[in-house]
Amino acid sequence: MKIIAIIVLALAAAGGGWWYWNQSHPAEVAYQTGAVTRGDVTQVVNASGQLNPVVDVTIGSQISGNIAKVLVDFNSLVKAGEEVAEIDKAPYTAAVHQAEANVSFAKAALELAKLTADRKQELVNEHAAAQADLDTAKANYDQAEATVQINEANLETAQINLDHCTITSPIDGIIISSSVTVGETVAASFNAPVLFTVANDLAKMQIDASVAEGDIGELEVGQDVNFNVDAYPMRTFHGKVSQIRNSPSTVQNVVTYDTVVAVNNSDQKLKPGMTANLNIVIAQRPNALRIPNAALRFRPPDNMPDSSPAQAAPRPPPKPPGTKTIYVLDAGATKPHSADVKLGISDGIYTEVVEGLHEGDAVVTSIISTGQSGQTGGFGMRRPF
Question: 24-40+288-383 architecture in CATH?
Answer without folding.
Answer: Beta Barrel (2.40)
